[in-house]
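Record type: monomer structure entry
Structure origin: computed from sequence
Chain ID: A
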Amino acid sequence: MFRSFLQLFWEKNNESLDYFLMDYCFAYIIDTDKECKKILESVPYNNPLTYNGIADKLSQPYNLNEYKEIIKATWVHKLSYKLPFKSNEKELTYYDFIINTYNNI
């Protein structure tokens, strides 16, 4: 159902009508499809550190123990080029660590 909706939408539109379009789609499908709702409710709770994750710490000094706690909470983290962050020549920051570790993947 979701795929069909999106395919039909993008056949008739060149841009999203709203930033939360995907959220609205999910909400509609969950409200109208009992099987989809059951599947969604079976997914374990994830990402309790959304607002205290790595994105908020990019310019801060890197701390291995803190990093392990953050990545243990979830397997995906949203980062953004829109957030202000900078490298620090005197000490390793989270930004430096991420760039040095994952830049060549």
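Annotation 1: Residues 48 and 105 are 27 Å apart (CA to CA).
Annotation 2: The radius of gyration is 19 Å.
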